């Protein structure tokens, strides 16, 4: 049986609150273990949580950053991966930010298959993430772009979440994806008995999911200022670090904001409607997949639905303006619908569950039947 070495930034424990990147990494690792066998998959964690990073290593990380060593990866760590690599058929780079590893593997003559997984086009992601007022913001953006480029140059297989990212990579670096692998989540609803008779309320409970990130912050603030005053709803905001946004923004002070919860299930089950006003970013939005998994009615922007194969009118509606959000929310209040959207749940099961990913990863690992 073939063997794979996974390269990831950090190990998540059972108490970790996972965001998009961590969720995707867990899915990728799970797929490899299922297809190759757990004994044949080893993992390199760049940030070993059991070891305290020395002041010297922190300083070295800063010095190496402009040369393509992103987020604390050091030349010694890269050399260790290159040294171990010949024992494996695959080196799976869980992020395109490990492009420096792909380059060094090829320079060392590694003959196995280098797989690079793009969560986003990272230069675009960091350009939208970092404040325009941040000094030296171009340094991490250029570092991210360099690693994206290295992955396109040196990886044997490039994976992207959607066609848009593949097209952008081709425009920027002359290389699109080899395998398009949409986002997928392990099913947290298998043991949930949905109340299929419950209907949305005349004063719908709207849920916004999102951690404290620029695109999320801008989206929910836009909604609160431009849509919320014109609709009769209850709005609940749930996400890692969002208490910070509530402290910063006066318009959120009187709203219900829940921060850093380990289990989103009670909030998703209680919601009549998911509100996803996201206008910028890259990759695919995990919150959309979570909403589909729980069979929710969804009002989202083009960006929120980017990469998803579905009928937006059947999951809810695609709304890109305040007037569109207002109209659809008002219509729902006047004409209640089932709180459980069976079409949303079906789309999740068919296209965005872990089980649906197995075929893609058989292609990644060359296990397709002839």
Task: Characterise the protein shown here.
This protein is α/β, with parallel strands linked by helices and 370 residues long. It has 2 domains: 4-186 and 353-364, 3-Layer(aba) Sandwich (Rossmann fold), CATH 3.40.50; 205-351, Rossmann fold. The protein has helices at residues 20-36, 55-64, 75-84, 99-107, 122-129, 138-154, 163-173, 214-226, 242-248, 265-270, 286-293, 312-315, 322-334, 342-352, 354-364; strands spanning 4-10, 41-47, 90-93, 113-117, 157-160, 179-180, 205-209, 234-239, 256-259, 273-276, 298-300, 316-318. It has a 6-stranded parallel β-sheet, with helices on both faces. Strands 9-8-7-10-11-12 form a 6-stranded parallel β-sheet, sandwiched between helices. The longest helix is centred in the first third of the chain and has 17 residues, at 20-36. The chain is globular, with a radius of gyration of 21 Å. The protein starts with a strand and ends in a 6-residue tail after the last helix.
């Amino acid at each position: 049986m073939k063997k794979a070495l996974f390269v990831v930034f950090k190990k998540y424990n059972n108490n970790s609150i996972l965001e998009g990147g961590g969720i995707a990494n867990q899915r990728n690792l799970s797929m490899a273990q299922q297809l190759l066998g757990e004994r044949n998959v080893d993992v390199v964690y760049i940030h070993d949580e059991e070891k305290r990073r020395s002041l010297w290593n922190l300083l070295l990380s800063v010095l190496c950053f402009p040369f393509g060593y992103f987020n604390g990866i050091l030349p010694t760590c890269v050399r260790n991966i290159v040294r171990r690599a010949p024992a494996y058929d695959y080196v799976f780079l869980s992020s395109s930010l490990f492009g420096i590893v792909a380059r060094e593997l090829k320079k060392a003559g590694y003959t196995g298959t280098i797989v690079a997984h793009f969560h986003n086009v990272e230069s675009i992601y960091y350009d939208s993430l970092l404040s325009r007022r941040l000094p030296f913001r171009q340094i991490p953006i250029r570092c991210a772009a360099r690693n994206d480029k290295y992955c396109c140059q040196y990886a044997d297989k490039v994976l992207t979440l959607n066609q848009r990212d593949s097209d952008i990579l081709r425009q920027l670096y002359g290389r699109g994806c080899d395998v398009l692998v949409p986002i997928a989540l392990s099913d947290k609803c298998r043991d949930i008995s949905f109340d299929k008779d419950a209907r949305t309320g005349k004063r719908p409970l709207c849920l916004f999911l999102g951690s404290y990130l620029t695109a999320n912050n801008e989206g929910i603030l836009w909604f609160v200022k431009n849509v919320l005053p014109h609709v009769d709803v209850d709005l609940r905001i749930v996400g890692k670090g969002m208490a910070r946004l509530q402290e910063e923004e006066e318009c959120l002070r009187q709203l219900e904001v829940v921060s850093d919860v380990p289990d989103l299930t009670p909030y998703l089950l209680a919601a009549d409607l998911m509100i996803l006003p996201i206008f910028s970013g890259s990759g695919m939005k995990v919150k959309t997949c979570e909403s589909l998994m729980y069979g929710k009615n969804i009002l989202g922007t083009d960006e929120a639905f980017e990469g998803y194969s579905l009928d937006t009118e059947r999951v809810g509606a695609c709304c890109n303006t305040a007037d569109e959000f207002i109209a659809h929310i008002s219509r729902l209040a006047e004409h209640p619908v089932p709180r459980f959207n069976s079409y949303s749940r079906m789309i999740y099961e068919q296209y965005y569950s872990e089980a649906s990913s197995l075929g893609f990863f058989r292609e990644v690992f060359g296990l397709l039947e002839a």
